[in-house]
Design brief:
Elements lengths: L37 E9 L7 H12 L2 E10 L11 H14 L3 E4 L5 H11 L2 E3 L1 H12 L3 H16 L25 H36 L4 E6 L5 H9 L16 E7 L3 E7 L9 H6 L1 H8 L3 E7 L5 H14 L7 E6 L10 E4 L5 E5 L8 H14 L1 E8 L4 H9 L3 E6 L5 E8 H10 L9
Helix pairs in contact: 1-4, 4-5, 5-6, 6-9
């Protein structure tokens, strides 16, 4: 079923109508023809005299990933956004005329709009208006397959919708009580807000349970001393293809934005390291909605708690440096900037005179690997680089703790990193410790006085 809902035709509550999907395209009809997709007009504003069309091209690819048929693209140049329509008054009228001429269903704006700007454009164009954040949320809604993924997407959508509710002209606009209960009652808008607030609380409670389960599984891996390697990178950089090549998994991989949404974990055996958990995560993108980051907190926690991050980069992309910066910004937002990173320059098969190789830093530690996940070139070099990085990240030393520092000793036992323990005549704990460097740095932040105690 394709939704073709005009703004003026909406006469129901935004949350009561359960049969209406928030997606632009109903994902249950995956075999629909292109003519059944929503017809859209794309709007993009250049805020500098140098018109870089890469952002516009990426947004058009996002629209195609959302199963939208682009009828026309309208661009304009401004120094600052306009308060009422984001674009100028004349350009807004041009968009409205184009919508009427082409009989478009929706207007996609490649920027973040305020709720007021969205409503003003919808009123003028007489059709739905979706900004960049709304489009990304819609793609996530179509791609979510697991129960957790669906909960996360619904939570992000409701948080996005809660700031965009408007008063509907309906017969339920004012609810009144019976005898003895008469009064102003509750408006439909207030009802929508209350129901959304209740639903958000329910989703957060469910996701908290999922997060507890993930934390329990993570602690089990930590007790087993199994390191975790997490794949991160810009969307469509080839993470899932690399994941399948390393683990012989069957994760869906395609040349499209956000092809993979639900995280997948597989066991990988590496010489001198042993069993290792490899995690495939959702791709990042510029201006990733904050509601998505908060909703996917439990999923992204796999990245925060990882022993090593494999930052997959499309080296054939002309904007690879900007993509690296965008990924680093998201890593900072989820507080994973201190996790060790190994750069993976993928898709060297699309470049000339580039062979698989490893780049080392001044300390002779692998810093970057050049490979092609699609052709399988350089995968053995990647395994070798991971082996060197993980083996170098395991610290072995002796530690002496005072009798009153049993809390630290208990924490070390929780991490399952004490190889041997003796007690001195003064009651001190003499420990032989083997611990992951990342976990040790976390302990040093919590107990700074431990550093000089390390023998």
């Amino acid at each position: 079923m394709i939704l073709n809902i005009k703004t003026r035709d909406i006469t129901q509550s935004a949350v009561i109508s359960e049969e209406i999907s928030t997606a632009l395209y109903c994902s249950s009809n995956l075999s629909a023809n292109a003519s059944d997709y929503d017809n859209a007009i794309v709007v993009h504003v250049f805020f500098s005299q140098v018109k870089n069309t890469d952002d516009l091209l990426e947004f058009q690819n996002l629209a195609k990933a959302a199963k939208v048929n682009i009828l026309s693209t309208i661009t304009t140049t401004r120094s600052t956004p306009q308060a009422k329509y984001f674009v100028g008054q004349g350009k807004a009228q041009e968009i409205a005329d184009e919508v009427k001429r082409l009989d478009a269903d929706i207007v996609l704006v490649n920027h973040s709009l305020t709720p007021a700007q969205t409503r003003n454009l919808e009123s003028l164009c007489d059709c739905r208006v979706v900004d960049r954040s709304g489009l990304i949320l819609d793609i996530f809604a179509q791609r979510a397959r697991s129960h957790e993924g669906k909960l996360q997407v619904e939570l992000a959508q409701l948080k996005h919708l809660s700031t965009r509710l408007v008063r509907r002209k309906t017969g339920l606009d004012q609810q009144k009580g019976a005898v003895g209960l008469r009064g102003p009652g509750e408006t439909q808008l207030e009802t929508d807000r209350r129901l959304i607030k209740v639903r958000i609380a329910q989703l957060q409670n469910r996701l908290e349970k999922v997060e507890k389960q993930r934390n329990q599984n993570r602690r089990t891996r930590q007790k087993s001393d199994i390191p975790t390697v997490s794949l991160v990178g810009y969307t469509n950089a080839g993470k899932s293809t690399l994941f399948n090549a390393l683990t012989q998994a069957n994760v869906y991989a395609a040349d499209q934005l956000f092809a993979t949404l639900d995280p997948t974990l597989r066991r990988l055996w590496i010489q001198d390291v042993g069993a290792t958990i490899l995690a495939d995560t959702v791709g990042f993108i510029r201006d990733l909605p904050h509601d998505l980051i908060s909703a996917f907190k439990s999923t992204l926690q796999e990245t925060v708690e990882a022993s090593l991050l494999l930052h997959v980069i499309d080296c054939a992309d002309s904007r690879k440096l900007e993509n690296i910066q965008a990924v680093n910004q998201v890593l900072e937002e989820i507080r994973a900037q201190d996790v060790p990173v190994l750069l993976i320059y993928n898709k060297i098969d699309q470049l000339e005179n580039t062979l698989p190789h490893i780049e080392y830093d001044d300390q002779n530690k692998p810093q970057a690997v050049y490979l092609s996940a699609h052709d399988g070139q350089g995968l053995d070099l990647l395994i070798e680089a991971i082996r060197q990085r993980l083996s170098n990240e395991i610290l072995t030393f002796d530690l002496k703790l005072a009798p009153q520092e049993s809390k630290i000793r208990h924490r070390l036992y929780q991490l399952n990193c004490i190889l041997q323990e003796q007690i001195s005549e003064q009651g001190e704990f003499l420990l032989a410790v083997r611990i992951d460097k990342t976990e040790w740095l976390k302990l040093l932040k919590q107990f700074p006085h431990l550093a000089p105690m390390q023998a």
